[in-house]
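Let's practice the habit of predicting before peeking. Look at the sequence and jot down your guess about where helices and strands might fall. Then scroll down.
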Amino acid sequence: MNISGRYLLRLLELDGWVRDRRSNHGILIYKEFPGEGRPRFTVIPDESTPLPDTMLGRILSVKQTSIGRTVYEG
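Done guessing? Here is the structure:
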């Protein structure tokens, strides 16, 4: 799948994720989920090139963004 970090960041913002700050590896974003005591944070690479499938799968995993079902094991 050809999704860049910048495009993924825009999609996650539409899902309710909020930009926090820039980190060494990209943009730190967070979202509060009902029933959890604290918000979830994840880093999205600030790149215009497509993300590797494994990285995309990990970002979309249940542990990080809860969008995907499981971690992609390509």
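How did you do? The mean pLDDT is 86.
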